[in-house]
Amino acid sequence: MYDWKLYYHFPSLILWIALLACFVLKENRNLRALVVIIPIIAIAAIWGMLSQLTGSGANTFTQLVSTLMIAAAILWLLSERISSYKPAGMFIISLVLLAAIGFLSMFSFGGLNFGQENLWILIFQFIWAVALLFGILITRYFCRKSISGVSFSFWLLLWMTVVSNVMMFITMMVTFAFVGQFNAKYLIFLIVVPVYGIIFAILAYLLILPYLILTFKSNFYKKRLLACLRLAEFVKKEEFSQTDISENTNF
Q1: Do 220 and 32 meet the contact criterion of CB atoms below 8 Å apart?
Q2: Which of 90-99, 182-191, 213-222 has the lowest mean pLDDT?
Q3: Which of 4, 128, 172, 230 is the most buried (most CB within 10 A)?
Q4: How high does pLDDT run on average in the chain?
Q5: What are the extents of the domains in the chain?
Q6: How does 149-187 read in b/e, with b if 16+ C-beta sit within 10 Å?
Q7: In degrees to the nearest 10, what's the CA dihedral of 94, 215, 35, 27?
């Protein structure tokens, strides 16, 4: 008898429900919060075209892309609440949140079937989360005196690349430790780690780029970013455009 599962036809349904639940929060019951959907549409449209070129690996990459783009949107929507904690607390809460979304994605796409492929997807999601959060944390230091969309994006790309390489190296070493031996074949993997790290960082950054553009174009999300970065002086000095949707556009 055929065993039908809901996720066969709606693999990312649980993730979308989690995203929609964020709009129930008081701070997101505002029309301006809805613009976070724009990066999702952009990423989904671009990936829809690129996925035609990936062949048999499309499903795996679709799971990864879908998870990361929704995870970023949820992080952006919850950023106001997260900003109320101290820096260490913000980092830990954000990391736990992204990790939880990763596990939720595993269940959403595959139910209770947790194979080796899903494990690697989860690992890459974790590397992305660590690279993003550490990248933002370090970027804050370099943008503490002056911040703009260009400078923030540049430093974030740089440090996401560095952190991604470190995480890739750690992942390889842990893998070797579990294998229990080290030979010339594994040495080749270590040599190409920087290459994979750079490629992964660029792809991970491209998934975040639409949200960065949104953040520096939307006063609603820009204030949240500055609050998370503890750059209160920029929040006070910022002259917000009158063309932005009114503060009273709650729903």
Answers
A1: yes
A2: 182-191
A3: 128
A4: 81
A5: 12-232
A6: eeebbebbbbbbbbbbbbbbeebbeeebeeeeeeeeeee
A7: 50
**Are the beta carbons of 155 and 142 closer than 8 angstroms?**
yes
Rounded to an integer, what distance in angstroms lies between the CA atom of residue 196 and that of residue 199? 5
Residue with the two structure tokens 């929060």: 25
Query: Which tokens hold the place of 125?
Result: 């999601």
d(CA 62, CA 147): 34
Percent of the chain past pLDDT 70, that is, above it, reads 76
Mean pLDDT to the nearest integer, 112-135: 82
Max Cα–Cα distance, the chain, nearest Å: 65
Q: Is the entire prediction scored with pTM above 0.90? A: no
For residues 228 and 91, give the distance between their C-alpha atoms in angstroms, rounded to a whole number: 10
